[in-house]
Give the backbone structure.
Amino acid sequence: MKLKDLLRLLSSEANLQILSLLSTKAMNPRELARLLNRDESDVSRRLKVLEKAGLVEGKWTRVDGKNVRVYSLKVEELKIRFNPGEIRLEGRVEEYSIPVGFEDQRPGVSVFVGREKEIEELRRRKEPVLVVYGIAGIGKTALVAKAFPRALWYHVSGEEEVEYFFWRAGMLLQSIGYGELLEYLRSGGREEKTLLDLLKKGIEKTGPTIVIDDLHRCNDENLFRVLRLLGRELKRGRIVITSRVKPPVGVEGVFYLKLSGLRPEEAYNLALLKRGSISPEEFAELYRITRGHPLALNLIFESAPRGKSWSRENFFEFLFEEVYSSLTESEKTLLGIMALFSKPLEYEALKWMYPNKGLFPALHSLLTRGLIERIGDGYTVHEIIRSFVREVSNVSPEEYYHSYADYLLEKDSPEAFLKAFKYTIKAGDQTRLRELTELRLRKFREVVVEFPKTYMKILQEAGDNPYIEAEKAEIEFQRGFFEKAEEIWIRVMDRIEGIQRANVLTFLVDLYLEKEEIEKAEKYLKESRELAKELDNPLVWLWYQIEETKYLYYSGRVEEALESAFKELEFARRAKANPDTEALVFLHIGDILLTLNKPEEALEYYTKAKEVSEAYGISFRANIAYFEMAKAYYRLKRFREASEFARKAVNYFIRIRNYRRAVDSMAYLAVSLIGLGALEEAEEISQEMVKIGQATGYPLSWAGYIFLGALKNLKGEDGRGYFRLGREHLREKPWLYEAILNSLGRVLDIEQFQETFKPENQDE
Ligand code: ADP
């Protein structure tokens, strides 16, 4: 490849983002696309080009009969050498850095005057949270962008809940090398305390400046709480906030800067930059009216110079009309379209909605007139101007909301889906909403789990519609509010058809199995089977089959459950289900085989689940597979392997703060270690389990006491005290106590400890 081509590749923001992400770990295109919020095929295409250029390296891994490509960085650094007569690119480099942003929201600063004092002050402050507040258009965003050109940006739109913020923050942190917050979210972790803790750790470890722009739009009190806590506790890294009103983020560790207009000499410089020259009288008059408000000044400089005095009444409106009347028709239309949206729109989105030839010149003209501004890849109408435009413009909001929703759906990502949903509601199109709920089931199932609050908030805007109600019920179900979910589903199910109905039916089966209302479960299972036949859609069959397996398993018909689980696999493949679902089905099969006491065969399926999850970077599922493998190996008395897999799972689950799973894995680690004779480590692990038990109360943690007792006995000491503690803590779960002893029985001769195992008080 020619040097020029290589440099061109490197000049693409998206490519740089990919390279930067790959420097954190090897990934497959699907995962990258998710992180970048881009279409997977676009990412694949870029990877291929980067691979050809020798910058990344793709490797095929064969997973369960399918080929999966995983990419890693091939060159960690590049050096450009300027020699007489040649420019050379070499593999090694000292310091050469440009910021790579992963948010498409950093504003571009072109013309900028003054504010040296404020910039210096902001940069100098030691508080972890800096707030710049002041009226609209006073220059907050411009100031912060200028003061912190490398900051990561988060633009508050007002629609999101705090969970959205955490996801975004997780992605930003992952992009600069801290993956634990994202990992925790991906694994389903939602505990606020942990989220905060991981966010704080991530910021402290990577030390970035994160800008939260337009915080006044936020109406989720939780976000303020997060920020107050960061102010109090953050040791490294910094959060910079802009807001129209002074936000309630506390006093400790927070510095507030109230921004007012430009100083006269600064405003004068702006006048010179924009106009070339200005008479002292005119300038004095302008400054008197605007008091240095930069947006107002910009607008004035765009309108014709005038001799007569400006009036202060409806000053903005007047100014705006002046500028607006000088626009061409296409400029007016474009401005009208843009004013419909409060978030920046990318060039591609504008092109989609305004496919006319004149887009580029119109955009350029609006930019130079100061009516719109550039924020990262996007363009937006300044807030105070927006309301004026909306008054005078005659573009049809519905038409463009529709069109924007279409554009977003092309992007094929959950976040874009949520936005598309919102705009479809705004366009008031009920039929379309129904189609979107179907799309959610087919492609974005995870939205309900990952963005429950945001999705709920969007759904609440939609008015009465059974399909929307069913979606709400699913969110309630995932949150654990079974009664509420049940009530809604039952109420609306007769008004729902198609795969949405199939979804409701299978969820009802699940719900009644959970509640152990077997007859009802049977009824809906039957209905669901009939509907599956009627629709004959592999995805629907898959849902049905998963419930059937569960039902059979719960009813003790394990052999039949196994058969059913194999059918799940068949449908998962036919439905081209995502890799996570496939891994899940492998795990089901493994579990059933283990129940049937076929650990070797179980192991085979657990291994498949492991391979699929690893290849697609689904760490949570991979670690569940490790845990299950540890279980199966333990059954086979292959303690070395058992301990290795259990240890991996323990480390992961501790890291993502999933203590239940961590303890489950620790239990297998401890007994395998006893099996191996590694008693010291087994003791450490057991103590760790007890500690977690004390913090969380999770019953299996108390197995730690029992292991400690057994370890004492093995050393020839008296372990009775520990056994007693274990038994006391498990008093309400005698079956668990038994199960733990049984498990130990595989590595120890329990008979030998008969005395101590026997409860001291038989009637306890
Ligand atoms: P806010 O965030 O307070 O609403 P912005 O930062 O968006 O305001 O600024 C409003 C307009 O004024 C923008 O067009 C911006 O480019 C311009 N502006 C703000 N500060 C300056 C400055 N110091 N020099 C030149 N232009 C500025």
About this structure: The first helix runs from residue 3 to 10. The pocket of adenosine-5'-diphosphate is lined by residues 111-115, 136-142, 242, 270, 294-295, 298, 370, 373, 382 (CB under 6 Å).
